[in-house]
Amino acid sequence: MTNDPLLTLFMPIALGIIMLGLGLSLTVADFARVVRYPKPVLIGLVCQIILLPLACFLITLGFALEAALAVGMMLLAASPGGTTANLYSHLAHGDVALNITLTAVNSVIAILTMPLIVNMSLLYFMNDGQTIPLQFGKVVQVFIIVLGPVAIGMIVRRLLPGVAAVLQKPVKILSALLLAVIIGVAVTKDWQTFLAYAPIVGAAALCFNLLSLALGYWIPRLLKLSKPQSIAIGMEIGIHNGTLAIALALSPMLLNNKTMAIPAAIYGVLMFFTAGLFGWWVSRGVGKTAPEQATA
To answer: For 96, phi and psi rounded to 5 degrees?
Structure first.
C-alpha cells in the first residue's frame, strides 16, 4: 500500500490533538482514585483488558471475518474508553468520577496492551506472508504520539487551569474536524472495500458493542457494585475509543491499513445509538441526584 501524503502529514497531528483534548480533562487525582477505590477500578480494568479482547476474538471467528478486518476488530477491542463514555455516563446518571479514572488508567495501560493484542492478532489472522507488523519497538512511537499529548494537556490544566478550560471545546471541535476529513479520505479511497464488508462487519461490530455494554454493566452488578458504578463501567467498556483505533490503523508510521479501520468506523456510528438506548434503559430508577463519586 502506498502512503497517502494527507494521512502521512495529518494523522499524527489529528491523533495528537485528540489525546491533548483528553489530557486537558484529566488531573493527577483521577489516577489517585485507583488507590482510594480499587474494587470498581479493578473490575473495570479486568473487563476492559481481558474479557473484551477474548469476546471480540470469538466474535471475529464466529463471523469468519477477512484477516485485516479481524485485526481491525481486535484493535478496536484493545482501545480504551474515551471522553464520549464520560458524557453518556453523565446522561445516564452513572459514576462519572469512576469513568474519568478508568479513562485515565486505561489510556496509560493501552500503550502496552494495544501493541501486544494487535501483534497476537496479526500473528493469528495474517500468518500467510501478508503480515503487517506492529513491532514492540514501535511501543515507543505509540507512547510519544499518544501519551505525550495527554501529559502536555495535564500539565497545562495543572499550571494554567484557565487556559485549559478555554482550550477544551475548540480542541474537541478541531480534532473532530480533522478526523472527519481523514476518515472521509480513507473511506473514499477504499470505498468498494467498505461497501463490500459493511453488512458483515456491521453485524459483528453491533454484536461486539452490545456484548461490551452487557458485560460492562452486569458483571459489576453481579459483584455487588452500585448501579451508578455499574452504569459507569458499562459505558466505559461499551464505548471504545474508535477514533484512536482508526488513527492507529491509518497511520503510515504504524499499521497503515485502511481495511483495518473499517470496523472502528462502523462501530463509531453504531455505538451512538446503542449507547443512547442502553443509557435510557439502565438509568430508569436512578435519581438525577445520584452521587457521581466512586465509593468502595
So the answer is: -65, -35
Q: Is residue 1 classed as helix, strand or coil in its secondary structure?
A: coil
Q: Distance between CA atoms of 240 and 108, rounded to whole angstroms?
A: 15
Other C-beta atoms lying within 10 Å of the C-beta of residue 193: 16
The answer to whether the CB of 82 falls within 8 A of the CB of 22 is yes
* Cα–Cα dist 44/80, whole Å: 11
Element housing 274 (H / E): helix 262-282
Higher pLDDT, 88 or 74: 74
pLDDT for the residue 220: 93
Cell of 270: 453504531
Alpha-carbon span 240 to 203, nearest angstrom: 17
- Using CA atoms, how far residue 116 sits from 16, 82, 134, 190, in Å, is 22, 20, 9, 27
For the entire predicted model, the pTM comes to 0.73
Compute the residue count for the chain. Answer: 296
Q: Nearest-CA neighbor of 194 among 262, 245, 96?
A: 262
Cell output for 264: 472502528
Q: How far apart are CA 15 and CA 182, in angstroms?
A: 11
Rounded to a whole number, what is the distance in angstroms from the first to the last CA of the chain? 50
Residues 6+ apart with CB under 8 A from 58: none
CA-CA distances (angstroms) from residue 71 to 138, 161, 169, 194, 294? 17, 40, 33, 15, 35
Q: Which three cell numbers stand for residue 123?
A: 500473528
- Taken in order 195, 200, 204, 206, the sign of the CA dihedral is positive
77: Cα separation from own chain's centroid = 8
pLDDT at residue 173 in the model: 77
User: 506472508: which residue's cell?
Assistant: 129
- Asked if 198 and 242 touch (Cβ cutoff 8 Å), the reply is no
Mean pLDDT of the chain: 78
Are 213 and 278 within 8 A, CB to CB? yes
- Cα separation of 115 and 121, whole Å? 10
